[in-house]
Amino acid sequence: MTNAQSSTLSHIRYVLSENPVTLGAALLFAAYAAMALFGPLIAPFDPLASDTARALQAPDWRHWFGTDQLGRDILSRVIVAARVDIGIALASVALVFAAGGLAGLAAGFFGGWIDAVIGRIADTIMAFPLFVLAMGIVAALGNTIPNIVLATAIINFPLYARVARAETLTRREAGFVDAARLSGHRDGALLLTQVLPNIMPIMVVQMSLTMGYAILNAAGLSFIGLGVRPPTAEWGIMVAEGAGFIVSGEWWIALFPGATLMLAVFCFNLLGDGLRDIVDPRRRT
Amino acid sequence: MKRRTFIKAAAGAAALATPAIRSAAAQTAPTRNETLIVVQEYGPNSLDMQGIGSAQPVNGVSLNCYDTLLRFKRVPFAEGTMTHDLLNYDPALAESWQIASDGMSCTFKLRENARFHSKRPVTAKDVKWSMDRAVSIGGFATTQMAAGSLEKPEQFVAVDDKTFRIDFLRRDKLTMPNLGVTIPFVFDSETAIANSGGDPWAKDYLKNNIAGSGAFKVESWKPGTETIYVRNDDWACGPLPQLRRVIARDIPSPSTRRALIERGDADMSYGLPPKDFKDLAEAGKVRVAAVPVPNAIWYVALNAANPPFNDVRLRQAIAWAIPYEKIMSAALFGRGVPMWGGPEKIGKIGWPVPSHYSANIEKAKAMVAAVTGGTTISTSLLFDAGSATIAEPMAVLVQESLAQIGIKVELNKIPGANFRGELNKKTAPMVINRFGGWLDWPDYFFFWNYHGKNSIFNVASYQNKEMDALIDGARFATDPATYETQVRGFLQMGMDEVPMIPVCQPFHDVAMQKNIGGYTYWPCREPDFRFLTKGA
Amino acid sequence: MRAILLRFAGALPTLCGVVVVTFLLTRVLPGDTATYFAGPTASAESIAQIKASLGLDLPLTEQFRRYVVALVHGDLGMSLTTGQPVLTELINRLPASAELTLCGLFLAIGIALPLGVFAAVRQGSVIDHACRIVATAGVSLPVFFTGLLLVYIFYFILGWMPAPLGRLDAFASAPPAVTGFYLIDTLLARDTETFRAAAAQIVLPAGTLALFALAPIARITRASMLAVLGSEFIRTARASGLSGPTVVLTYALRNALLPVVTVLGMVFSFLLGANVLVEKVFAWPGIGSYAVEALIASDFAPVQGFVLTMAILYVLLNLGIDLLNRAIDPRARRGA
Fold first, then answer.
1. C-beta atoms of B385 and A225 within 8 A
2. Given CB atoms, is B264 within the 8 Å cutoff of chain C?
3. Counting CB atoms within 10 angstroms of each CB, which of A260, B38, B460, C61 has the fewest?
4. Could you give the ipTM of this predicted complex?
5. Between chains, do B396 and A50 touch, taking CB under 8 Å as contact?
């Protein structure tokens, strides 16, 4: 066991040293995590406090990222928004992991009608233009954070269900499952104790990859006007608001939240790639 | 040598011939100077302004492609900008008219030479059919006609081919002005009926086709993309427009609309955010025609029928807590007329007039504390997502201010499709909205917004018998002195009771290139191509 | 032939699911359509009148029955916002979306394919990392932000690109419709001037879309190339003295293309749905912007029509890819 652990560690070390990009992404991720956790403490100003006398000011020493239409400090808003955005992404990914992952697990393990039904549901969702489906769900249920989370989870469902199903299929007849079955484990227990832990790594990679997509999706909804409520700071809304000011020359309003958003998605994507290299050396390409 | 001369001569002949060909071509293809490019957020969803569900831009179709009996007189407003006079009229399809000595009817003489696009002469029969249609078709057209006491087909009489009479139901000062708006326009009734497919009002046909006599025809209409208008060279109701072709493109992104006008790729840009109009006006490269929208205000309504704002003291406290200056600079960028800080007692009558409130947080705080004893009130504030450019920063500022006086506000941005539904429920505690009537009379505004009849626009659900009596008194007052007392009465009551807190009177802004002249502001706010000129 | 029919029949439940879900979703949209279209100053009676004329006062099951009956007759209903039949509008607008998406896709292929090949050939090199970063950065950008930025830089600041006025600038007129694709129709009409105008209009939106499509194509090209390069027959080819470029371009690439084609199909269908935001930014008169506007206005019919069209396209596309795969690779016949 210790041997295996140390080999995993050395593998991680090997991957990171071989792949400086992943290392960079990991560091960036730590920075975002810190922003999400301690945002309100780090922010130099109150992200909601307006100061119309200082509205639309270009970046300077007082306001590093400038101020917006109402004179709010953009840096503070960008920092505080990390919790909202990463929160939405994490929650939706957790939700779809629970729903899609388990559904895929069951579909792959039991096959038969369970597989057929879950496959049909996934097919139906896939046949929708996904962004419009998310828009429809949020518009129908109301633009609140839980509904944005739900919509994002639903459009990612087929992906999770399929990956989980495929992974389960390859492991269903594996030796360790047979062994457990022989030692008298029931199917349900078998599924949760033997198969699930084995497909976990690949699911974690999937989660990292879809985190970025979830953030983009929420930002897109904000752009259409279906985002979180004002005056909450959220990257997508800030970009959408700032978009109207690009042509008039106040580029900083959209640029900084946009760059922060982009970097976050970028970081999750690179991290996902890196994680895949670590957990699944077979697929390392 | 000889040969060269010949070539020269031939070249000369060709050179002589070219201008002739050019001018012939000009007859068929309008030049860039005769072509106007307008960019707007969205275009018409129908070609029939009387039809149900017609959107705002359809007013423009009515204005340019159809004629009314009379037009409001154009009066100069500022350099390059004209506005209109609701009480004086220019002849349009009617070359003259006479109000009967008893003041209970008006007889119109139609223009002899007026013809529809189909070449048919315009007759009184067409006018009657069109008026009958407007009062019978239902929806907005019928309501608007009723606003001027035009309610029944029996009121409209085709006396002979060129004589038309309207019988009044009552003496209503809004009747004549209401004939100049974009609803009572005249259709070619024969063409419409011939294509109606059995529908008495030819709704489907007229939605997709123009059957009018107006200065422009619609050459092509791609809903959601563009509308192309071409001049009707036989137009009889005014001087022939200089523009021969107008291309109206739908460009949803306001940034793009600004970029287009700034770079000179569009001649006229409609509906930009106030920030852009401010920048453009200051930069001075293009002209911004700014007219304060008559009869209109941005306001904060407080639900006077339900707690907590059924307590007038709380409403007044909020009126003292609105951050007016901040809203004016950060939400409207100065594109409006302040409607606060006026005298305690109403001075000159009219609408809108400034309230006597101004931002005074300490005073407001004390007033709220006197009512609540220090407990926090939680409430919510609604606004239309469609007007979020202005309403949202306004709402955020109001929210921030009210937090300081112990009122916690949750903001509720309602998608456009649902906003009217929410207003109809009459339960929203606070609403930020804008209202303006086409017919610029104080009693008209108060009738819709403060009357106990409780229309959808009485957003505050304000009910007060005294108020109703004052409004009704003013609407049908016959002598100026009574009218003034009544108006002064309801204006004062409106300010003291503040179910609606006036914030500002917005500008109607349009950006255009400097070589565009003759811009006219009409009640419907759509561009009128008939009087526009385009210089080199 | 039987296989095709079977596949198609297999897709029917999916399409039914789409129809039911869209119907329900549009009915729970909060907008009160009748109130919205009754206009301001509407009385309760006129709202009720409109409700009745739109059939909105009927029970949900009856509304659904009517919807399905109309659907069977090829009637997708009327859009209230544009006042036109949905089917006509979708047919008019589909070519615009398809042209934009295809241009974006070709642009993406043009960049991603060489990038992927290079990355595979020089695995672990600077190019490999650059490929990964460029591709990942592409998918990390919110498309509406990229679009606005491109408009700002290339149109507003530099003036290299024409005004983002849609498919053609205001003075050009559309070519006679043959395919609906302006780039093809103008060439058919031998109208090079309009062709140039149309091409100039499509560069920025297609570029924005292409950025988004880079990543999946570059990744799959790289992965598939690596797999092929490591295989027996390439080693044999190398051993028998064939030069590097010949091996890579003629043998390896050709064999690596199959998974790339499969991914292209998916990317196409994804882009067609995802370009709603790009269409909005560039005033592109496609079906995506049509659907978005309708959704915001709670205008059911266009949303239902759009979703249904996309679902049918999706099914057809999958079918097409399937058939293509069978044609190219006999092994796939057994698999499916």
1. yes
2. no
3. C61
4. 0.81
5. yes
